[in-house]
Amino acid sequence: MRTSRMVAVATAAVAAAALVAPNTAAATPTKSPVATGYGGVVASVDPDASAAGIEVLRRGGNAVDAAVATAAALGVTEPYSAGIGGGGYFVYYDADTHEVSTLDGRETAPKSADDKLFVENGKPLPFAEAVTSGLSVGTPGTPATWQSALDRWGSIDLDEALRPAERIASNGFVVDSTFRQQTADNAERFSAFPATRALFMPGGQPPAVGTVMRNPDLARTYQLLGREGVEALYRGDLAKDIVSTVRHPPVDPASTRVVRPGKLSTEDLRAYHTIRRDPTHVRYRGLDVYGMAPSSSGGTTVGESLNILEDTDIKHASQTQYLHHFLESSRLAFADRNRWVGDPAVNSVPTRQLLSQRFADSRACLISDSKALTSPVAPGDPRDPEDCADTGTAAPTPYEGENTTNLTVADRWGNIVEYTLTIEQTGGSGIVVPGRGFLLNNELTDFSFSPVTPGVPDPNLPGPGKRPRSSISPTIVLRDGQPWFATGSPGGATIITTVLQVLTERIDRGLPLVRAIAAPRASQRNGAAADAEPAFLAAPEAAQLRALGQKFATSAEIGAATGVERLPDGRWQAAAETTRRGGGSAMVVRAG
User: Fold this and answer.
1) Distance between CA 367 and CA 370 in Å, rounded?
2) Does the UniProt entry include the keyword Metal-binding (predicted)?
3) Which of 369, 456, 507, 539 is deepest in the core (most CB within 10 A)?
């Protein structure tokens, strides 16, 4: 979405001109939603980030190396969506072993947290007040994820992987309309923190489109991590700076904003570790679909939805019936997700049972071709499924921040990375660590502040060291044991439905991957109405779906997916959004 002043593909003359005239947009990598060829591919929302990944692939790096480089660059050009102050989930296909592995790099609550973390005077805090506070900040997992991935599967060290991003942070990128608008949307809360204001609103105003945004503090932070490793963030002076910022939020004395301190400690940072989890796995139309297990709800909810659809011929159904069954399957799966999924270190999550075909069949029989279900639908019991039965009281889906980012990488050897990372809300907590150049997350607001439904067990309440439930859904699809395609998306709880829609559009409806990503979207999450984009509501099927009882609320935009696909002739194809978030950036090492 944004463009750097100096990237590997820019000429020296253009770079020099940009340095002389910093308010003039510089030459940038060509931005395209699809790229096909050889040697490896990268898809992300941003051309500078995709170019960083391609640079690493061209130098002989593998998909893991390129994914870390791309993610680090997104921390520069997409700082309101991701960065080293956040966390994420990393899914990897190994071409040598034909195995899919995952890393849980989710943020964790402080050891001192309890289920009343966001409760004051017996009442849950207003969401907006919780977001912009130290209370919302979890221990960052992104740096540890990068190091864990490189240690296990990479071929270069962290210092080398960070160099393209360090260069972009030092030299700058050109502000576009999205960056300016996101800054303007957060201007009031950013202005409460001098370090945030100085970095993102020089002169006290959002930067103008076409001006150059530099982040020398982040460049130095990347240099520190490259030189000393991520232990610098979890044990060194940087860790002390993070803790001090959380426990004593650096609020402008002139600000009237009340910013509550958090409880994060240096012990919390020292104790952090990623978790290598078994991926979720379902068979769908003879394919193997792998995703992210809890603490994310993405793999279980996407997988259950696919299992619900397994015995329905949505390939040959009308477009209306296809969309109807798509919406109903996610409605039911979200009912079960809300009741059963949380951090498996704390809660007994019935992952295997949620992904069983027996349980899905017991839910699928609730779906009628002629009439939509009425939400909220009550959950089923995956441990003791009964046909067409539900159990207990329905639990609505709580709000999740939507401004995550996603990237997909494949290399010349056939390895694939599908990686979604986030700082939660647009702009995270709004708090920049002074002198360090990055925003802290507000990930702990993904917890339920209080039980969603009084009297019903809620697996997503805060707790000591607990990981909040996520909807992140990085997904890899194998056909006959070989990679076919991979996809993922940002979008809060709509991530699950976005990925599900891309999967079914590609697998069942036969759309090319770039068209499956571009298709108008709707998202039913066991709510009274499904969110739907204007293009979806403008289609003739919308009226037909309403006649079946489907209800819709307008949403300007849902998700921003990326993906890669291995074509029958051996070429790779990368795909990204055509218009959402200004369009994504797909790149290939060698076009052909």
Assistant:
1) 9
2) no
3) 507
CA distance 166 to 209: 22
Using CA atoms in the order 443, 444, 448, 449, what is the torsion angle rounded to 10 degrees?
-130
Beta bridge partners of 573: 36, 565
Please, are residues 117 and 135 in contact by the beta-carbon 8 Å criterion? Answer: yes
Catalytic residues: 404
Render pLDDT for 19-49 as a digit per residue (tens, 0 to 9): 223 443 345 677 899 999 999 999 999 999 9
CA distance 400 to 449: 12
- Of the CA atoms within 13 Å of residue 559, those in its CB half-sphere come to 36
Please tell me the total number of residues recorded for the chain in this structure: 592
β-sheet with 552-554: strand ranges across: 522-523, 530-532, 552-554
DSSP code string of 38-92: EEEEEEES-HHHHHHHHHHHHTT--HHHHHHHHHHHHHHHSTTT-STTSEEEEEE
Q: Hey, how many other C-beta atoms are within 10 angstroms of the C-beta on 119?
A: 14
Residue with tokens 């639990």: 395
d(CA 31, CA 37): 16
Question: Is the pTM of the predicted complex or chain greater than 0.90?
Answer: yes
Nearest-angstrom CA–CA distance, 82 and 229: 19
Classify 406 as helix, strand or coil. Answer: strand
DSSP string, 328-397: HHHHHHHHHHHHH-S-TTTS---HHHHT-HHHHHHHHTT--SS----SSPPP--TTS--TT---S---PP
CB 28 within 8 A of CB 581: no
Strand partners, 408: 43, 418
Nearest to 194, CA basis, from 441, 433, 443, 442: 433
